[in-house]
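Standup notes
- DV: blocked on the single-chain target, sequence here:
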Amino acid sequence: MRSEDERPETQSRPAESGVEGQDLATRRSMLRMGALGAAAVFTVRPGAGLAQTAVSGITCSIPVPQSSQSGKWIRDNGDVVNPNTKNSYNPPSTPLSGEDVKNSLAYGTRYSGYNQKATDAFNNYIKKLTMGKQGYTCYSSIQSRP
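- DV (later): unblocked, structure below
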């Protein structure tokens, strides 16, 4: 332990008096309030973001396949292939709704107008979506929903 003599000297400040002392106290209070306010914002905002994600999962859509591959079919393993390839299915003419995809992935429901094998092929395609591909954001928001 250090003795009193070994401690580094601290700067001495003139005594706070009058208006200067009040200004300093006010500034300190404002800083404290700002810090508390920032903490409150960080606590509240994530909840709002989750609400937006939940809504987007209902209203979003996933094109199968993405528009740059229009005219292609979907193979049973989810790969995009040339039309009439063995074990492949003609994709839907309109994007699949986020709600339909969520129900199909979670409960095994079929897409309207398609048998179970075609639905499974489309779901395999959707599961292979990566960042940057059309439908990825919708698919990831569906995955984050309870």
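- Follow-up: Confidence is low (pLDDT under 50) at residues 40-57.
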